[in-house]
Amino acid sequence: MPMPSWTERITKGIFLTVICALVVLPFVGVISTSLATPDEVNRAGGFVMFPTHGIDLSAYRSIFAGGTVTQALLVSGFITVVGTGIALTLTCTLGWALSRRATLGNKPLLMLVLISLLFNPGLIPTYLVVQQFGLLDSLWSVIIPTSVSAFNVIVVRAYFTGLPAEIMDAARIDGASEWKMFRHIGLPLSKAVIAVIGLFYGVGYWNSFLNAMLYINDASKWPLQLVLRTYVVNGVELGGQDLGVGAEAVPPQTTIQMAILMISVLPILCVYPFIQRHFAKGVLTGAVKG
């Protein structure tokens, strides 16, 4: 295969540079605006690409002063940690049960999981079920309805099915129960797929918006994404009473909005590098061996 000419290489380099700039520059603008001084933000008309008058952390100090955003951040943290833990527990145990052919009701249960991939229950029936269980205006209304994903169950089941049968037979001969094999063999050998599924669930819970908007009316229980929509997308201004600071200490609204946006993105950016090395292995192995 002939090597590309220098003209083609330059063209590809320019094209990739433009694409990277289109992706990176808006993100740089959000960071810069959240760190810019109030005078610079007001003088720039609300958006600063590169701060030239130093860094000002007043927007972040206002956000973490104990007001609405701080409360929403704690709510989102609770939903993400508890929801991901519950979801991983249910998904892994169900995936293990479906991977064991001797499990009672294995095939009918697997068929139900597969059918749920094809048919969505709909918004109104789901709302009525949540209402009947008394979960309205509760954080559990955001956690429980999405605690099991059929797609993730199938991926985990495929991974468990691909584990060496010789190890399971040896453990069974030594008298290990299914629960012990699951805890001491299945889980340790499946760290890659569990890390990937945990990332899927964690991102889903951290970004939970629709369920929170439908089921939670109490503003004190809003997750961060609802606060982001209210004060950033809809443009509602955050006052001193909302931030927990005095009215004279409130930074420009644009600075606060960009700071909220950064806080909503930063946790996922911090977690992803630690799981990225498992990502391809976990997804591909679970999918191919199904």
Automatic annotation (TrEMBL):
Stretches that traverse the bilayer: 72-97, 109-130, 142-160, 181-203, 256-275
Pfam families to which the protein is assigned, alphabetical: BPD_transp_1
Record's subcellular location: Cell membrane
Membrane topology of the entry: Multi-pass membrane protein
SUPFAM superfamilies assigned: MetI-like (SSF161098)
Keywords tagged on the record: Cell membrane, Membrane, Sugar transport, Transmembrane, Transmembrane helix, Transport
Domain called ABC transmembrane type-1: residue spans: 73-275
rRNA processing as UniProt keyword: no
One Gene Ontology CC term in the entry: plasma membrane
Biological process terms in GO annotation: transmembrane transport
Domain of life: Bacteria
PANTHER family noted in UniProt: ABC TRANSPORTER PERMEASE PROTEIN MG189-RELATED-RELATED (PTHR43744), POLYGALACTURONAN_RHAMNOGALACTURONAN TRANSPORT SYSTEM PERMEASE PROTEIN YTCP (PTHR43744:SF9)
Family that this chain belongs to: Belongs to the binding-protein-dependent transport system permease family.
Protein name per UniProt: Multiple sugar transport system permease protein/putative aldouronate transport system permease protein
Organism annotation: Actinopolymorpha pittospori
